[in-house]
Write a structure and sequence with these properties.
- Chain A: InterPro entries: DUF2157.
- Chain A: It holds the Pfam family DUF2157.
- Chain A: This is Membrane protein.
- Chain A: Keywords: Membrane, Transmembrane, Transmembrane helix.
- The complex is a heterodimer.
- Chain A is mainly α.
- Chain A contains 16 helices and 1 strand.
- In chain B, strand 7 and strand 8 form a beta hairpin.
- Chain B is an alpha+beta fold.
- Chain B is globular.
- Classes of the chains: A mainly alpha, B alpha+beta.
- Chains A and B meet through helix 4, helix 5, strand 1 and helix 6 of A and helix 1 and strand 11 of B.
- Strand 1 of chain A pairs antiparallel with strand 11 of chain B.
């Protein structure tokens, strides 16, 4: 509820006797209007412009600068950013302070890169840039800052991308630092934004590994679902769920791709890792996830794992496509049922979108082959949809009837 | 809209302040260390001269560097020494030997594992870019040359053959020390 809404509506509440004027004043005092930020922003914008002009002067003359001058400039701005950050942090201006510390961290990496470039120096492993990740991690812990932790995840992604693409090797240290270091920070101080950034960052690390190792892409889902399981074990429910978003989206897209292209055995063949090793690993992650769900009382989200059913071991062709579609429908249905139980409007919308998505895929997929089977499939889909809608509506009515006390006045 | 935020946290305790200073100091030292590694590579590294051509001098109008095409960037596949066939993006060790005279080093072999060197030889690390039926495309990470403001390359109209002086440090870093134009070719 916004302050503006309260300002305009509350006099009417007083007039209707819902609250007294004294209560209204107390409520107004409880939620003070947001300070006008524009005036505070002016000096920031001004210094930003000055900084940009300085940056462009330096960039234009960079080639003419002798090495010592470049080094002095880089170290000067690095120290300036950190000193400014600490100054503002001590004065209690956390936003600006952490922003400047973050700038210092970015300048550290920029300095490593530009100094190497000044001396035309090439290294053949990632150790030079690994220091950047380590510094980010240390700063995130020292400041207990989720912003710096998120920045470190981005730096880790950049470093790993360079390492795999430029150097042709995988930096396990970077991946381990992100998973262990930032992961621990996230575990202790859960936060929605950091959850999402960290989960996407870890998926990126996993994807780069799969690409570099030329492994079957299904192996990606072992680390991805480990991230998911970590979300189950996380005590903070909102942060845990936020961390599970990216792996679920990846798994859903994969299942969608399997439904669309799985018919050709060539594609399915690309996905089949050794059965025992893959299923063993996936089973272990599933066990961990179930353990977490049980511990935290979130067993209702177990149908998420439907998306991970290894349907690609089925022979390619129609059986695989149909099996995947059934799984997609079952998953959408499970989301709908869960949303309905928890009365969560957003989940309900998501479930509906998933259901419609599965129907669209079925439509595109099945109008290409034999027609009879398709019509039967749509009949089943339609009956399912109608049945679900009937059930949900009935349940909704029952829940609402139970919620309203029998002697309450009609609205 | 949240209820009024708690007042700003107290200033960090002294131990944290000290830790933060140490962290910043370590970063400054690290950057200085990178610069030091540059000087140390010149002082202690093995000198190798490589023949190269600038790929396109017109890029100097917009950027600070030219791309160098090394003669050693394409080697016959017969020079591959490895247990398996070379793969793109694989990291390799290129054994170089001076050809005598002031001229540039020649590739003796491309190895998957670090080879032993005879006196006068040097090992430059690189990556496989392409595997062709008869040749191997290589990349050394030294392809971008940041041209100093005083370099004659900035006055050139047409690309001329270059001699690139490289120093290879015993700990595995390498740097371009100087780029000379080969006169009379």
């Amino acid at each position: 509820m916004s302050r503006k809404f309260f300002d305009t509506e509350s006099p009417a509440w007083v007039a209707e006797g819902l609250i007294t004027e004294a209560q209204r004043q107390r409520l107004l005092a409880r939620y003070p209007p947001d300070a006008v930020p524009a005036v505070g922003l002016l000096p920031v914008l001004g210094s930003l412009l000055v900084a940009l002009s300085a940056l462009s002067v330096v960039a234009a003359n960079w080639a003419a600068l002798p090495p010592w001058a470049r080094l002095a400039l880089l170290l000067g701005s690095l120290l300036g950013a950190y000193a400014g950050g600490h100054y503002f942090l001590q004065r209690g201006n956390r936003g600006l302070g952490r922003g400047l510390v973050g700038l210092g961290l970015v300048l550290f990496g920029v300095s490593i890169i530009l100094v190497s470039q000044t001396y035309q120096l090439v290294g053949y492993d990632i150790s030079g840039l690994l220091a950047w990740v380590v510094a980010g991690m240390a700063l995130a812990y020292a400041h207990r800052s989720r912003l710096l932790a998120a920045l470190t995840v981005l730096i880790g992604a950049a470093v790993q991308t360079y390492c795999t693409q430029g150097l042709g090797s995988y930096s396990y240290a970077t991946a381990a630092l992100l998973a262990g270091g930032v992961g621990y920070l996230w575990w202790r101080r859960p936060d929605g934004l950091l959850s999402t950034v960290l989960a996407i960052g870890l998926l990126w690390q996993a994807a780069l590994w799969v690409a570099l190792a030329h492994a079957k892409i299904t192996w990606f889902f072992i680390p991805a679902m480990l991230v998911y399981a970590a979300g189950d074990l996380q005590p903070g429910r909102a942060a845990g769920r936020a961390a599970q978003g990216p792996p679920l989206v990846a798994a859903y897209l994969f299942a969608l791709g399997l439904a669309l292209f799985g018919e050709t055995d060539a594609y399915a063949g690309l996905l089949r890792p050794p059965v025992l090793a893959y299923l063993g690993a996936l089973g272990a992650v599933l066990a961990l996830s179930v353990l977490g769900k049980k511990q935290r009382g979130r067993l209702d989200t177990l149908p998420d794992w439907l998306l991970l059913l290894p349907g690609f071991y089925l022979p390619g062709g129609l059986p695989l496509a149909v099996a995947t579609l059934v799984v997609l429908y079952a998953h959408a249905g499970s989301v709908l049922v869960r949303a309905h139980r928890s009365q969560n409007a957003e989940q309900l919308t998501l479930g509906t979108v998933l259901f419609v998505g599965a129907t669209m895929v079925a439509f595109f997929k099945l109008t290409w082959g034999a027609f009879i089977n398709k019509s039967l499939f749509f009949l089943i889909g339609g009956v399912l949809l109608l049945g679900l809608s009937w059930y949900l509506r009935r349940r909704n009515a029952r829940v609402l009837a139970a919620a309203v006390p029998p002697n309450a006045p009609a609205p | 809209m949240a209820p009024t935020q708690a007042p700003a946290p107290p200033a960090p305790p002294r131990r944290t302040a000290l830790l933060l200073r140490l962290l910043v100091g370590a970063q400054v030292l690290y950057v200085l260390g990178v610069a030091g590694a540059g000087y140390a590579t010149t002082a202690l590294g093995k000198a190798v001269a490589l023949a190269a051509m600038p790929a396109d001098l017109t890029t100097l109008k917009t950027t600070d560097f030219v791309r160098l095409r090394y003669a050693a960037a394409t080697v016959p596949l017969a020079q591959w020494r490895g247990p398996a066939a070379p793969r793109a993006r694989q990291s390799v060790y290129v054994l170089l030997a001076p050809t005598g005279g002031p001229a540039e080093a020649a590739v003796v072999g491309v190895f998957a594992e670090e080879p032993a060197t005879a006196p006068g030889q040097a090992v430059l690390r690189g990556w496989v870019t392409d595997v062709f039926p008869r040749t191997l495309g290589l990349r050394y990470g030294l392809e971008r040359y940041y041209v100093p403001a005083a370099s004659p390359l900035r006055q050139d109209r047409a690309p001329r053959p270059l001699r690139v002086l490289v120093r290879i440090a015993p700990w595995g870093q390498a740097r371009i020390v100087a780029v000379e134009e080969i006169v009379g070719k």
